[in-house]
Amino acid sequence: LARMLDASPGVRVAGQPASLEEALAQVRRLEVFAVVLVPRDATRQALRGSQGTVFAYYNATYLTTGQSAVRDIVEAVSAWNARLLAGEIGRQVGPAKLRAPPIAVQSDILHNPARSYELFLLPLVFPALLSLGLALAVAASLGREVRDGRLAEWLGRTPWAAIAGKIAPYVALFSLYGALGVLYLALLRGDGVAGSVWLLMLGQPLFYLACAAVALLFVGLTRDMGTSLSAIGLSIGTALAFSGATFPVVDAPLFTRVWNLLLPLTAYVKLQTQQQFVGAPWSISLWPLATLVLMVLVAGGIGGWRLIAAARVTAAAPPSAPGSGV
Protein backbone atom coordinates (compact mmCIF):
# COMPACT_ATOMS: atom_id res chain seq x y z
CA LEU A 1 0.00 0.00 0.00
CA ALA A 2 2.85 2.40 0.80
CA ARG A 3 4.31 1.87 -2.68
CA MET A 4 0.90 2.46 -4.28
CA LEU A 5 0.44 5.65 -2.28
CA ASP A 6 3.88 6.86 -3.30
CA ALA A 7 3.05 6.12 -6.94
CA SER A 8 -0.16 8.20 -6.80
CA PRO A 9 0.05 11.44 -8.80
CA GLY A 10 -1.19 13.71 -6.00
CA VAL A 11 0.51 12.34 -2.87
CA ARG A 12 3.84 11.00 -1.77
CA VAL A 13 4.89 9.12 1.35
CA ALA A 14 6.84 11.60 3.47
CA GLY A 15 7.69 9.06 6.17
CA GLN A 16 6.54 6.03 8.13
CA PRO A 17 6.47 7.06 11.82
CA ALA A 18 6.34 4.42 14.52
CA SER A 19 3.10 5.71 16.06
CA LEU A 20 0.01 7.72 15.20
CA GLU A 21 1.07 10.43 17.67
CA GLU A 22 4.32 10.96 15.79
CA ALA A 23 2.41 11.22 12.52
CA LEU A 24 -0.08 13.73 13.94
CA ALA A 25 2.84 15.78 15.27
CA GLN A 26 4.03 16.06 11.66
CA VAL A 27 0.56 17.35 10.74
CA ARG A 28 0.80 20.01 13.45
CA ARG A 29 4.17 21.06 12.07
CA LEU A 30 2.56 21.27 8.58
CA GLU A 31 5.13 18.82 7.25
CA VAL A 32 2.33 16.59 5.96
CA PHE A 33 -1.34 17.21 5.20
CA ALA A 34 -2.72 13.69 5.62
CA VAL A 35 -1.94 10.55 7.63
CA VAL A 36 -2.75 6.96 6.67
CA LEU A 37 -3.01 4.47 9.54
CA VAL A 38 -2.87 0.81 8.50
CA PRO A 39 -3.72 -1.43 11.50
CA ARG A 40 -1.42 -4.40 11.96
CA ASP A 41 -4.21 -6.89 11.35
CA ALA A 42 -5.89 -5.16 8.37
CA THR A 43 -4.51 -7.55 5.75
CA ARG A 44 -4.98 -10.55 8.05
CA GLN A 45 -8.66 -9.68 8.52
CA ALA A 46 -9.13 -9.35 4.77
CA LEU A 47 -7.52 -12.74 4.11
CA ARG A 48 -9.72 -14.36 6.77
CA GLY A 49 -12.88 -13.14 5.08
CA SER A 50 -13.77 -10.09 7.17
CA GLN A 51 -13.28 -6.49 6.10
CA GLY A 52 -10.19 -4.61 7.24
CA THR A 53 -10.13 -0.84 7.73
CA VAL A 54 -7.52 1.73 6.78
CA PHE A 55 -7.84 5.11 8.53
CA ALA A 56 -7.08 8.37 6.71
CA TYR A 57 -6.73 11.63 8.66
CA TYR A 58 -6.44 14.91 6.79
CA ASN A 59 -5.87 18.53 7.78
CA ALA A 60 -9.06 20.38 6.82
CA THR A 61 -7.60 23.82 7.47
CA TYR A 62 -5.91 23.22 4.10
CA LEU A 63 -9.23 22.01 2.74
CA THR A 64 -8.38 21.63 -0.95
CA THR A 65 -5.05 19.95 -0.27
CA GLY A 66 -6.49 17.63 2.36
CA GLN A 67 -9.46 16.52 0.29
CA SER A 68 -7.24 15.96 -2.74
CA ALA A 69 -4.95 13.78 -0.62
CA VAL A 70 -7.88 11.70 0.64
CA ARG A 71 -9.09 11.09 -2.92
CA ASP A 72 -5.69 9.74 -3.89
CA ILE A 73 -5.58 7.62 -0.73
CA VAL A 74 -8.95 6.07 -1.59
CA GLU A 75 -7.77 5.34 -5.14
CA ALA A 76 -4.58 3.72 -3.84
CA VAL A 77 -6.57 1.53 -1.44
CA SER A 78 -8.89 0.56 -4.32
CA ALA A 79 -5.85 -0.54 -6.32
CA TRP A 80 -4.64 -2.49 -3.29
CA ASN A 81 -8.06 -4.16 -3.03
CA ALA A 82 -7.89 -5.18 -6.68
CA ARG A 83 -4.47 -6.74 -6.10
CA LEU A 84 -5.68 -8.61 -3.00
CA LEU A 85 -8.79 -9.92 -4.78
CA ALA A 86 -6.84 -11.03 -7.81
CA GLY A 87 -4.00 -12.46 -5.72
CA GLU A 88 -4.12 -14.09 -2.29
CA ILE A 89 -7.88 -13.90 -1.72
CA GLY A 90 -8.70 -15.05 -5.24
CA ARG A 91 -6.43 -18.07 -4.88
CA GLN A 92 -7.92 -18.96 -1.49
CA VAL A 93 -11.65 -18.76 -2.23
CA GLY A 94 -11.72 -19.01 -6.03
CA PRO A 95 -12.88 -16.43 -8.57
CA ALA A 96 -16.55 -17.38 -8.14
CA LYS A 97 -16.57 -16.37 -4.46
CA LEU A 98 -14.83 -13.04 -4.73
CA ARG A 99 -16.73 -10.51 -2.63
CA ALA A 100 -16.78 -6.79 -1.85
CA PRO A 101 -13.52 -4.87 -1.40
CA PRO A 102 -11.65 -6.46 1.52
CA ILE A 103 -10.20 -3.14 2.76
CA ALA A 104 -12.35 -0.10 3.52
CA VAL A 105 -11.18 3.49 4.04
CA GLN A 106 -12.45 5.52 6.98
CA SER A 107 -11.52 9.20 6.72
CA ASP A 108 -11.40 11.53 9.72
CA ILE A 109 -11.08 15.32 9.69
CA LEU A 110 -8.47 17.19 11.68
CA HIS A 111 -8.60 20.83 12.88
CA ASN A 112 -11.71 21.90 10.92
CA PRO A 113 -14.26 19.22 11.83
CA ALA A 114 -17.21 21.04 10.28
CA ARG A 115 -15.30 21.46 7.00
CA SER A 116 -16.39 25.10 7.20
CA TYR A 117 -15.54 27.12 4.13
CA GLU A 118 -15.81 30.22 6.29
CA LEU A 119 -13.02 29.02 8.60
CA PHE A 120 -11.08 27.87 5.55
CA LEU A 121 -11.36 31.06 3.46
CA LEU A 122 -11.65 33.98 5.88
CA PRO A 123 -8.31 33.32 7.63
CA LEU A 124 -6.74 33.48 4.17
CA VAL A 125 -8.73 36.33 2.63
CA PHE A 126 -8.32 38.70 5.60
CA PRO A 127 -4.50 38.81 5.61
CA ALA A 128 -4.31 38.61 1.81
CA LEU A 129 -6.46 41.72 1.34
CA LEU A 130 -4.88 43.61 4.22
CA SER A 131 -1.35 42.88 3.01
CA LEU A 132 -2.24 44.09 -0.48
CA GLY A 133 -3.78 47.28 0.91
CA LEU A 134 -0.76 47.97 3.10
CA ALA A 135 1.78 47.31 0.34
CA LEU A 136 -0.06 49.61 -2.07
CA ALA A 137 -0.34 52.35 0.56
CA VAL A 138 3.35 52.15 1.47
CA ALA A 139 4.45 52.08 -2.17
CA ALA A 140 2.26 55.09 -2.98
CA SER A 141 3.57 57.00 0.03
CA LEU A 142 7.21 56.31 -0.83
CA GLY A 143 6.66 56.68 -4.57
CA ARG A 144 5.22 60.17 -4.21
CA GLU A 145 8.50 61.38 -2.74
CA VAL A 146 10.32 60.03 -5.80
CA ARG A 147 7.74 61.33 -8.27
CA ASP A 148 7.67 64.84 -6.82
CA GLY A 149 11.46 65.13 -6.69
CA ARG A 150 11.58 65.48 -2.90
CA LEU A 151 13.52 62.27 -2.21
CA ALA A 152 16.81 63.84 -1.08
CA GLU A 153 15.06 66.53 0.95
CA TRP A 154 12.77 63.99 2.62
CA LEU A 155 15.50 61.49 3.54
CA GLY A 156 17.84 64.22 4.80
CA ARG A 157 20.72 63.20 7.04
CA THR A 158 18.87 60.32 8.74
CA PRO A 159 17.47 58.35 5.79
CA TRP A 160 16.70 55.13 7.66
CA ALA A 161 14.79 57.03 10.34
CA ALA A 162 12.82 58.85 7.62
CA ILE A 163 11.93 55.57 5.92
CA ALA A 164 10.93 53.97 9.23
CA GLY A 165 8.80 56.98 10.13
CA LYS A 166 7.03 56.80 6.78
CA ILE A 167 6.27 53.07 7.08
CA ALA A 168 5.52 52.75 10.81
CA PRO A 169 1.98 54.25 10.86
CA TYR A 170 0.81 51.91 8.09
CA VAL A 171 2.30 48.86 9.82
CA ALA A 172 0.70 49.83 13.14
CA LEU A 173 -2.72 50.43 11.60
CA PHE A 174 -2.81 47.25 9.53
CA SER A 175 -1.42 45.20 12.43
CA LEU A 176 -4.41 46.37 14.46
CA TYR A 177 -6.74 45.34 11.63
CA GLY A 178 -5.02 41.96 11.45
CA ALA A 179 -5.29 41.39 15.20
CA LEU A 180 -8.99 42.26 15.13
CA GLY A 181 -9.48 39.81 12.26
CA VAL A 182 -7.79 37.01 14.23
CA LEU A 183 -9.92 37.72 17.30
CA TYR A 184 -13.10 37.89 15.21
CA LEU A 185 -12.43 34.47 13.72
CA ALA A 186 -11.32 32.95 17.01
CA LEU A 187 -13.93 34.34 19.38
CA LEU A 188 -17.00 35.01 17.23
CA ARG A 189 -16.84 32.52 14.34
CA GLY A 190 -14.52 29.77 15.51
CA ASP A 191 -13.63 27.72 18.57
CA GLY A 192 -10.96 29.95 20.04
CA VAL A 193 -7.21 29.77 19.58
CA ALA A 194 -5.72 26.28 19.76
CA GLY A 195 -2.16 27.50 20.34
CA SER A 196 -0.55 30.75 21.47
CA VAL A 197 -2.45 34.03 21.15
CA TRP A 198 0.78 35.92 21.84
CA LEU A 199 2.58 34.35 18.89
CA LEU A 200 -0.37 35.27 16.66
CA MET A 201 -0.25 38.85 17.92
CA LEU A 202 3.53 38.97 17.41
CA GLY A 203 3.02 37.71 13.87
CA GLN A 204 0.84 40.69 12.92
CA PRO A 205 3.49 43.46 12.92
CA LEU A 206 6.12 41.10 11.52
CA PHE A 207 3.86 40.07 8.64
CA TYR A 208 2.82 43.60 7.70
CA LEU A 209 6.36 44.88 8.17
CA ALA A 210 7.53 42.20 5.72
CA CYS A 211 4.89 43.33 3.21
CA ALA A 212 6.00 46.94 3.69
CA ALA A 213 9.59 45.81 3.08
CA VAL A 214 8.52 44.25 -0.22
CA ALA A 215 6.87 47.56 -1.20
CA LEU A 216 10.07 49.41 -0.25
CA LEU A 217 12.06 46.94 -2.35
CA PHE A 218 9.98 47.61 -5.46
CA VAL A 219 10.08 51.39 -5.01
CA GLY A 220 13.83 51.31 -4.41
CA LEU A 221 14.53 49.14 -7.44
CA THR A 222 12.19 50.86 -9.90
CA ARG A 223 12.14 54.42 -8.49
CA ASP A 224 8.79 54.79 -10.18
CA MET A 225 5.48 54.77 -8.35
CA GLY A 226 3.42 53.31 -11.19
CA THR A 227 5.83 50.46 -11.87
CA SER A 228 6.16 49.59 -8.19
CA LEU A 229 2.37 49.53 -7.74
CA SER A 230 2.08 47.18 -10.72
CA ALA A 231 4.79 44.91 -9.29
CA ILE A 232 2.95 44.78 -5.96
CA GLY A 233 -0.26 43.82 -7.74
CA LEU A 234 1.54 40.95 -9.48
CA SER A 235 3.27 39.69 -6.31
CA ILE A 236 1.33 40.56 -3.15
CA GLY A 237 -1.93 40.68 -5.10
CA THR A 238 -1.60 37.08 -6.28
CA ALA A 239 -0.03 35.74 -3.08
CA LEU A 240 -3.13 33.85 -1.97
CA ALA A 241 -3.03 31.59 -5.03
CA PHE A 242 0.67 30.78 -4.48
CA SER A 243 0.65 30.51 -0.67
CA GLY A 244 -0.04 26.77 -0.70
CA ALA A 245 -3.20 27.21 1.37
CA THR A 246 -5.74 27.18 -1.46
CA PHE A 247 -3.92 24.99 -3.98
CA PRO A 248 -1.13 22.55 -3.10
CA VAL A 249 2.39 23.44 -4.19
CA VAL A 250 3.86 20.03 -3.43
CA ASP A 251 5.39 18.69 -6.67
CA ALA A 252 4.47 21.96 -8.40
CA PRO A 253 6.85 23.45 -11.01
CA LEU A 254 10.08 24.87 -9.63
CA PHE A 255 8.99 28.48 -10.28
CA THR A 256 5.80 27.97 -8.24
CA ARG A 257 7.68 26.45 -5.30
CA VAL A 258 10.32 29.20 -5.29
CA TRP A 259 7.69 31.94 -5.63
CA ASN A 260 5.76 30.35 -2.76
CA LEU A 261 8.81 30.64 -0.49
CA LEU A 262 9.38 34.31 -1.37
CA LEU A 263 5.92 35.49 -0.31
CA PRO A 264 5.31 36.89 3.20
CA LEU A 265 1.79 35.43 3.14
CA THR A 266 3.19 31.88 2.94
CA ALA A 267 5.08 32.25 6.21
CA TYR A 268 2.18 34.01 7.91
CA VAL A 269 -0.38 31.40 6.87
CA LYS A 270 1.84 28.68 8.36
CA LEU A 271 2.08 30.61 11.62
CA GLN A 272 -1.66 31.25 11.71
CA THR A 273 -2.58 27.64 10.94
CA GLN A 274 -0.14 26.25 13.50
CA GLN A 275 -1.25 28.51 16.34
CA GLN A 276 -4.89 29.36 15.65
CA PHE A 277 -6.19 26.01 14.42
CA VAL A 278 -3.69 23.18 14.96
CA GLY A 279 -2.23 24.04 18.35
CA ALA A 280 1.40 23.33 17.45
CA PRO A 281 4.14 23.87 20.07
CA TRP A 282 5.41 27.45 20.08
CA SER A 283 8.88 26.31 19.05
CA ILE A 284 7.50 25.01 15.73
CA SER A 285 6.28 28.50 14.83
CA LEU A 286 9.66 30.14 15.33
CA TRP A 287 10.57 29.17 11.76
CA PRO A 288 7.80 31.19 10.02
CA LEU A 289 8.47 34.09 12.40
CA ALA A 290 12.17 33.97 11.56
CA THR A 291 11.27 33.82 7.86
CA LEU A 292 9.28 37.05 8.19
CA VAL A 293 12.17 38.73 10.01
CA LEU A 294 14.55 37.64 7.25
CA MET A 295 12.22 39.08 4.60
CA VAL A 296 12.15 42.40 6.47
CA LEU A 297 15.94 42.54 6.65
CA VAL A 298 16.67 41.44 3.09
CA ALA A 299 13.86 43.14 1.14
CA GLY A 300 13.83 46.23 3.34
CA GLY A 301 17.62 46.48 3.36
CA ILE A 302 17.95 46.27 -0.41
CA GLY A 303 15.02 48.61 -1.04
CA GLY A 304 16.20 51.20 1.47
CA TRP A 305 19.77 51.05 0.19
CA ARG A 306 18.64 51.64 -3.40
CA LEU A 307 16.35 54.49 -2.36
CA ILE A 308 19.12 56.19 -0.37
CA ALA A 309 21.55 55.74 -3.28
CA ALA A 310 19.03 57.37 -5.63
CA ALA A 311 18.66 60.29 -3.23
CA ARG A 312 22.43 60.82 -3.11
CA VAL A 313 22.67 60.81 -6.89
CA THR A 314 19.86 63.35 -7.08
CA ALA A 315 21.49 65.57 -4.45
CA ALA A 316 24.87 65.43 -6.20
CA ALA A 317 23.46 66.28 -9.63
CA PRO A 318 24.08 69.91 -10.70
CA PRO A 319 20.96 72.06 -10.94
CA SER A 320 19.60 72.43 -14.44
CA ALA A 321 20.14 75.76 -16.17
CA PRO A 322 17.08 78.00 -16.26
CA GLY A 323 15.42 78.59 -19.61
CA SER A 324 16.27 81.80 -21.46
CA GLY A 325 12.65 82.87 -21.87
CA VAL A 326 11.37 85.42 -24.35
What does this structure look like?
- With 326 residues, the protein is mainly alpha-helical.
- It has two domains: 2-110, 3-Layer(aba) Sandwich (abc type-2 transporter like fold), CATH 3.40.1710; 117-316, no CATH class.
- 66% of the residues lie in helices and 6% in strands.
- It has 14 helices and three strands.
- It has helices at residues 2-7, 20-28, 42-47, 63-86, 88-93, 117-147, 151-155, 159-189, 197-222, 225-235, 239-242, 254-262, 264-278, 286-316; strands at 34-37, 52-59, 103-110.
- A three-stranded mixed beta sheet has the order 1-2-3, with helices on both faces.
- The chain is elongated.
- The protein starts with a helix and ends in a 10-residue tail after the last helix.
- The mean pLDDT is 85.
Share of helical residues: 55-70%
Radius of gyration: 26 Å
**Number of helical elements:** 14
Number of individual domains: 2
Strand % is 5-15%
Order of helices and strands: HHEHEHHEHHHHHHHHH
What is the molecular shape? elongated
User: Which parts are unreliable, with pLDDT below 50 for 5 consecutive residues or more?
Assistant: none
Total E-strand runs: 3
Q: For the largest beta sheet, what order do the strands appear in spatially? A: 1-2-3
Distance between the termini: 90 Å
SSE class: mainly alpha
Mean pLDDT: 85
